[in-house]
Amino acid sequence: MSEVDALFGVLRQSTGEDVVAAIERAIREAPDRSLCRINVLDFAKQYEIEEERAIAGFLHASRLGLFEMSWNVLCPGCNGVLNSNATLKTVQQVEYNCSLCAAGYEPTLDEMVEVTFTVSRRVRKIAAHEPDELPLEEYFRQVFWGSGFDVTDTEFAGAMREVMLDSIELHPGEKASLSLQLPANFVIVMEPVTHAAHFLDVKGEPTRERQNLSIIYDTVVAPTGTTLVAPGPLRLSFENRTKRRVLPSVWVAGDELHRLLGSRKPFLTAKRLLTNQTFRDIFHTGTLEIDQRLKILSMTFLFTDLKGSTALYERVGDLVAYDLVREHFKALYEIVASETGAVVKTIGDAVMATFPTPDRGLAAALRMRSAMQTLNEQRGSDDLLLKIGLHEGPCLVVTLNEQQDYFGQTVNVAARVQGLTDSQAIFASSSIVEDPRATALLANRGLTARPQRRSIRGMNEEIAVYEIP
Questions:
Q1: Is residue 150 predicted with pLDDT exceeding 60?
Q2: For a pLDDT cut of 70, what percent of the chain falls above it?
Q3: Helix (H, G, I), strand (E, B) or coil at 247
Q4: In terms of Cα–Cα distance, which of 224, 189, 3 is closest to 98?
């Protein structure tokens, strides 16, 4: 473990000792399953670490090679992993299809792409490093379903016993069959490796005559089909024409299966990671391909600008003004990071930042204003007056000037809302102020948002904005 010990020594230089100790303990003592596609939010809860610090720790550990980071496209219906990617670059913009749910979904980074961490082979060999050798139930648990799948070991074993009628393992080129007695229920023949499914609509009068159905697994997954059969005996014949082992199993699509598929818990989404300052600092380039555009359904944008910065330089001189502006940037960066946000870029004396939710953006705005007031009090002047604007909505994640950036009307409106301010008041759109978490935040601070109708450049109609005094 000498090489690994050295890596942990390096990790301690960028990560808190308690986070490093928890990661090291997990790598040395946790069962194999716990080190495959780690849900960092779960990990933080288990080891009693603040979530953002745990995320930062795993990002630094991945940079050192202790973990392999994976961007997994999930089915929002069954939580199955439709596609696993080593980088965000290979997440497609086109629709992903789930055979089990017989539905297609255009990927969004809000809830459809999870980010997980698997221990590196060089650090510790685990069973999931060879997924084609995992038993069927472990393959479903560790590979097929995502890290948001919320079922205990006991619950999972019991559910699989109740749901699964039978299963079989076929290696490349093999043929085999199963003989079943079909109940009068809807039945699914599910194959998790190729993510192929075939539905059996079992209805009508029971029969004693044996029914037959053949299923071929190929490299091209056929659309989900449905076969009408009667309750009674069925012979299922399988042929594996792929280059991997396949694991067809027969499930009863009853209440227990629906309960199993509906068991979800919080996980680290791609959207949350993209708004993480540590991620932007470590992986500031190469996150996306130049022509790649991925959707986010809800992102909060915050824009700031120093009022009268040109006059400030003239009034106090370049050196003093430079130090003041740098101090202002330092305070803003720290506040953004502590509120689970990330600074996207600075433009002159202005800052563009993102947050996963409106309340975090609003909390950051209030703290920024307070921080500038503190800096002014320390100097005995009003040199630093910050104009702040917030807006929330959908956007595209893109690459601009070789860095991760955002594009769309939401970004434009957020910048324009900031342009409405002419004092230390914060201006926010209705999508910010009317968010329940933001409403509660204002109430707890004893603040009342004052509604206005204002015109902004580029929009034909006035929009509702709120001034937060």
A1: yes
A2: 98
A3: coil
A4: 224
First to last CA, the chain: 57
Where exactly are the structural domains of the chain? 160-261, 285-468
**Residue 409, H or E segment:** helix 409-419
pTM above 0.85? yes
What tokens does 71 get?
Answer: 């961007």
Separation CA 254–CA 186 (nearest Å):
7
Give me the residue label for tokens 């600092």.
Answer: 281
Beta carbons within 8 Å of 13's beta carbon, 6+ residues apart: none
Cβ distance 47 to 16 under 8 Å? no
SS3 helix, strand, coil % of the chain, rounded to 5? 35, 30, 35
Q: Which CATH superfamily is domain 285-468 in?
A: Nucleotide cyclase, GGDEF domain (3.30.70.1230)
The closest of 419, 409, 422 to 458, measured between CA atoms, is 409
Give dist(CA 186, CA 3) in Å, integer: 53
What average pLDDT does the structure give for the chain? Answer: 92
Residue/partner pairs of 154-157 with CB below 8 Å, 24 or more apart: 156/260
Listed in sequence order, the residues at least 6 apart from 275 whose beta carbon sits closer than 8 Å to its beta carbon are: 299, 340, 341, 342, 354, 355, 356
Q: Convert the pLDDT of each residue in 218-265 to its tens digit.
A: 988 778 899 999 999 999 999 999 999 999 999 999 999 999 888 889
Give the chain's radius of gyration (CA, Å): 27
What is the tens place of the pLDDT at every residue in 273-314? 999 999 999 987 778 888 889 999 999 999 999 876 666 667
Torsions phi, psi of 398, nearest 5?
-140, 175
| Type of residue found at 254 | G
For the chain, how long is the longest CA-to-CA vector? 96
Task: Indicate the range of 119-128, 137-146, 188-197, 310-319 predicted with least confidence.
Answer: 310-319
Would you state the structure tokens that stand for residue 99, as one six-digit string?
Answer: 């055979």
CA distance 49 to 430: 34
